[in-house]
Amino acid sequence: MRKVALVVAAGCLLATSAFAHTPPGEVINAVKFPAGNEPTIDGDCSDWDAVPGDSYWVFADAFIPAGEGDSYRHPVEGLEKGDMDQSSFSPILRGGWSEHTNDFYYCHSVFDDAHTIDRAGDFDWYEDDGVESFFRFRHISPEEATALGTEGFGTYLGFNFSVPQSAAGPLWHVIGLCVGCEWLTEEETELHNLQWSFDGEEFGQSTYHYEHRVHPFDGKQNDLEGAPENFEYQTLEDNQIIHYSIAFFDDDAHREDGRGGQWIIGGATGPENDWLMEPLNPNITWPDAMTAVESESWGRIKAQY
Ligand SMILES: [Ca+2]
Ligand SMILES: [Ca+2]
Ligand SMILES: [Ca+2]
Ligand SMILES: [Ca+2]
How many structural domains is the chain composed of? Predict the structure, then answer.
């Protein structure tokens, strides 16, 4: 099963070069967190409450149906952009970054009338209510990325997952840079940390929250092992554009066809969307980085001296 999945992943990589930036001309704002206000990665998106959603978040109406044709597990025939049946599936994307930590953050909330995890193989995240995240932190064109790939240098970073972990094995893998690397199954590393939670029923109607910190690592000679010392590291800056796309699979086992759809914001198989690392927005009132509890503790500490 694992071998089959690896072949599928390789096929996705080859298909990436065929896609131009989509939707053309659209840029999504990634909000800049002030130092000290970076999200706590715990599957709770409330760190983002100060951010006005209408200026930053991506909602169901921006999603494009993918998965046309019999070969797809999550068909969406006849649907156009924004035609998502929100009683079955409705996502909210939130993206941001911090100059202080040099990390990209996202917290995505996904309402689903039937959260389904029943895949037989650990790599078959796309058989369930799964997520595919595609990153390219370098601001290079797909053609330039392809040319680098031809030279044996990978710039495509992907995180695919479907939670909770299936009985079959590890939670996720990274396509391209590091397929099946064991270090990626670690709970938290400097390179990334993914946590999730859910409201509602674990395997019924629910809203899952996926919160992820991703360090901008992105390049590797294909002949080197996918280990941290072999990656290259980027520095996020004001007004930088990164490429980040996301695809959701909605597996609704209770349906006659068993499928709720496959939805993307841009690339179905690669990082196609432009995200702007926005400078600090002076109109956002961030909460004090030090919470009331911490202030109280701090006060007690100081009182001891
Ligand atoms: Ca959080
Ligand atoms: Ca659904
Ligand atoms: Ca399934
Ligand atoms: Ca579902």
Answer: 1
> How many Å lie between the centroid of ligand 2 and the Cα of residue 117?
12
Distance 251 CA to ligand 4 centre (A): 4
**Per-residue pLDDT reduced to its tens digit, 237-265:** 999 999 999 999 999 876 666 567 899 99
Instruction: Name residues whose C-beta falls within 8 Å of residue 181's C-beta, 6 or more positions apart in sequence.
Output: 173, 174, 226, 227
Task: Name every residue whose Cβ is closer than 8 Å to that of residue 26 and which is 6 or more positions away in sequence.
Answer: 273, 274
Contact 39, 105 (CB under 8 A): yes
Residue 271 and residue 162: Cα distance in Å, rounded? 19
pLDDT in tens, 182-227: 777 777 888 999 999 999 999 999 999 999 999 999 877 777 777 8
Structural domain including 260 reads 2-303
Q: Is-contact 223 149, C-beta < 8 A? A: no
Alpha helices in the chain (DSSP H): 2-16, 53-56, 142-150, 292-303
Nearest to 159 by CA among 193, 129, 190: 193
Q: Copy the structure tokens of residue 103.
A: 């990390």
- 93, 63 Cβ separation under 8 angstroms: no
Task: Determine the Cα–Cα distance for residues 188 and 58; give it in Å rounded to an integer.
Answer: 27
The strand pairing partners of 245, in sequence order, are: 134
CA–centroid distance, residue 125 to ligand 3 (Å): 8
* CA 63 to ligand 4 centroid distance, Å: 16
CATH number for position 22: 2.60.40.1190
Nearest CA to 233 out of 155, 301, 297 is that of: 155
